[in-house]
Design brief:
This protein is mostly beta strands. The protein is elongated and about 40 Å long.
Amino acid sequence: METVTVTFEYITGVTRRLFTAANLKCSWTQEGWHSDDWLIIPMTPFRAPCGSSAFRAEVQLSKDDAGTTFSWGVFLDAPARPGMWGRPPDRGARAAPA
């Protein structure tokens, strides 16, 4: 099977190290095929060029699945709160009404 390498980077936007770990949760198998069963991949911490705390994971996806929609997200661990959904706000998004 021919694969393509995809690098996921989650940049927190803060310089303090608020999170102890991050995991990429994704809709593909360890072999790189699309799947409805979600896989969890540990991410490696690093410092982004802007100085923010960040995490990275590199994965191999099957070229045979080109054009398929893959889903993914990042879950963050903080000392008092593990497994938080790490979705940043959309650019230009307004706060929901109270």
